[in-house]
Amino acid sequence: MSLWYNLDIMKDIPTRLKGILWSREVEKLNPQKDKSYIINQVLSFGSLKEVKWLFKKYPKKEIGKIFLSHPRKVYTPQSFNFVKNHLLKITRKLSASKYVKSLY
Fold it and tell me: Which residue, of 2, 43, 44, 77, is most buried by count of CB atoms within 10 Å of its CB?
């Protein structure tokens, strides 16, 4: 599968995402190399506007693949369930401990 889909459009990541992608310099993010970080951060912390942006920039299948193959502990229990069940419609059981951050 070729991953050229919307990378030309993504060269400029909107400045409004700086608050979501806070642990990296947005200007230096590579949409291909950093897609696991970008996808998980936006799914976990993004508003509806940012999530819509994400789905315009990456195919839903690619977002789901990254979510499943590169879990990150950045989700609250509520955001994990929303992303899994409603945004990505994943029906198989997933280990929440790989996705949900602990408070301690």
Answer: 43
